[in-house]
Amino acid sequence: MSSRDQVKASHILIKHQGSRRKASWKDPEGKVIMTTTREAAVEQLKSIREDILSGKANFEDVAARVSDCSSAKRGGDLGPFGRGQMQKPFEEATYALKVGDISEIVDTDSGVHIIKRTA
Questions:
Q1: Which residues have a catalytic role annotated?
Q2: Which residue ranges are recorded for the region named Disordered (predicted)?
Protein backbone atom coordinates (compact mmCIF):
# COMPACT_ATOMS: atom_id res chain seq x y z
CA MET A 1 0.00 0.00 0.00
CA SER A 2 1.43 3.36 -0.97
CA SER A 3 1.73 6.12 1.58
CA ARG A 4 -0.79 8.11 -0.53
CA ASP A 5 -3.50 5.63 0.52
CA GLN A 6 -2.66 5.88 4.22
CA VAL A 7 -3.77 8.25 6.94
CA LYS A 8 -2.09 9.11 10.22
CA ALA A 9 -4.00 9.67 13.42
CA SER A 10 -3.82 10.00 17.17
CA HIS A 11 -6.59 8.96 19.51
CA ILE A 12 -7.79 8.91 23.07
CA LEU A 13 -9.39 5.61 24.10
CA ILE A 14 -11.56 5.14 27.16
CA LYS A 15 -12.36 1.49 27.88
CA HIS A 16 -15.55 0.44 29.64
CA GLN A 17 -17.48 -2.62 30.84
CA GLY A 18 -18.38 -3.56 27.26
CA SER A 19 -14.83 -3.34 25.92
CA ARG A 20 -13.39 -6.47 24.37
CA ARG A 21 -10.29 -6.45 26.58
CA LYS A 22 -10.87 -5.14 30.09
CA ALA A 23 -7.31 -4.16 30.95
CA SER A 24 -4.90 -1.45 29.87
CA TRP A 25 -1.44 -0.08 30.59
CA LYS A 26 -2.89 2.17 33.29
CA ASP A 27 -5.39 -0.36 34.66
CA PRO A 28 -3.64 -3.76 34.26
CA GLU A 29 -6.20 -5.63 36.34
CA GLY A 30 -9.15 -3.82 34.78
CA LYS A 31 -10.63 -2.73 38.10
CA VAL A 32 -11.60 0.75 36.86
CA ILE A 33 -12.57 -0.44 33.38
CA MET A 34 -14.94 -3.10 34.76
CA THR A 35 -16.80 -0.47 36.80
CA THR A 36 -16.95 2.16 34.03
CA THR A 37 -20.20 2.17 32.06
CA ARG A 38 -20.16 3.00 28.37
CA GLU A 39 -22.24 6.10 29.18
CA ALA A 40 -19.69 7.30 31.76
CA ALA A 41 -16.85 6.74 29.26
CA VAL A 42 -18.73 8.73 26.60
CA GLU A 43 -19.40 11.59 29.04
CA GLN A 44 -15.73 11.67 30.04
CA LEU A 45 -14.65 11.82 26.38
CA LYS A 46 -17.21 14.51 25.53
CA SER A 47 -15.80 16.68 28.32
CA ILE A 48 -12.23 16.02 27.16
CA ARG A 49 -13.17 16.84 23.56
CA GLU A 50 -14.78 20.14 24.62
CA ASP A 51 -11.65 21.09 26.61
CA ILE A 52 -9.42 20.34 23.61
CA LEU A 53 -11.61 22.22 21.14
CA SER A 54 -11.86 25.25 23.45
CA GLY A 55 -8.09 25.35 23.89
CA LYS A 56 -8.18 24.48 27.61
CA ALA A 57 -6.33 21.21 26.94
CA ASN A 58 -3.84 19.79 24.45
CA PHE A 59 -4.82 16.56 22.66
CA GLU A 60 -1.42 14.90 23.02
CA ASP A 61 -1.06 15.81 26.71
CA VAL A 62 -4.52 14.47 27.53
CA ALA A 63 -3.89 11.29 25.52
CA ALA A 64 -0.67 10.68 27.44
CA ARG A 65 -2.55 10.95 30.75
CA VAL A 66 -5.93 9.34 30.14
CA SER A 67 -5.95 7.10 27.09
CA ASP A 68 -6.28 3.39 27.79
CA CYS A 69 -4.29 2.61 24.63
CA SER A 70 -0.56 1.96 24.82
CA SER A 71 -0.19 4.72 22.19
CA ALA A 72 -0.64 7.08 25.17
CA LYS A 73 3.14 7.05 25.61
CA ARG A 74 3.34 8.70 22.16
CA GLY A 75 0.59 11.24 22.88
CA GLY A 76 -1.94 8.92 21.28
CA ASP A 77 -0.04 8.69 17.97
CA LEU A 78 -0.95 5.53 16.07
CA GLY A 79 1.31 6.29 13.12
CA PRO A 80 0.26 5.74 9.51
CA PHE A 81 -2.27 3.06 8.58
CA GLY A 82 -4.35 2.05 5.61
CA ARG A 83 -7.77 0.63 4.96
CA GLY A 84 -8.42 -2.72 6.62
CA GLN A 85 -5.86 -2.23 9.41
CA MET A 86 -8.17 -0.78 12.08
CA GLN A 87 -11.65 -1.65 13.29
CA LYS A 88 -14.15 -0.47 10.67
CA PRO A 89 -15.83 2.35 12.66
CA PHE A 90 -12.39 3.74 13.62
CA GLU A 91 -11.14 3.53 10.03
CA GLU A 92 -14.25 5.16 8.57
CA ALA A 93 -14.16 8.01 11.08
CA THR A 94 -10.46 8.67 10.50
CA TYR A 95 -10.73 8.71 6.69
CA ALA A 96 -13.74 11.07 6.95
CA LEU A 97 -11.74 13.66 8.93
CA LYS A 98 -9.65 16.42 7.40
CA VAL A 99 -6.09 16.77 8.70
CA GLY A 100 -6.22 18.58 12.04
CA ASP A 101 -9.88 17.72 12.71
CA ILE A 102 -11.05 15.88 15.82
CA SER A 103 -13.85 13.34 15.57
CA GLU A 104 -17.03 13.03 17.53
CA ILE A 105 -17.19 9.94 19.79
CA VAL A 106 -16.34 6.74 17.88
CA ASP A 107 -17.52 3.38 19.26
CA THR A 108 -15.48 0.19 18.65
CA ASP A 109 -15.04 -3.18 20.33
CA SER A 110 -12.08 -1.64 22.17
CA GLY A 111 -14.09 1.16 23.78
CA VAL A 112 -14.91 4.75 22.91
CA HIS A 113 -12.47 7.08 21.16
CA ILE A 114 -11.92 10.56 19.92
CA ILE A 115 -9.61 10.69 16.93
CA LYS A 116 -7.38 13.46 15.64
CA ARG A 117 -6.28 13.06 12.03
CA THR A 118 -2.68 14.21 11.71
CA ALA A 119 -1.89 13.34 8.05
A1: 11, 69, 87, 110, 113
A2: 1-30
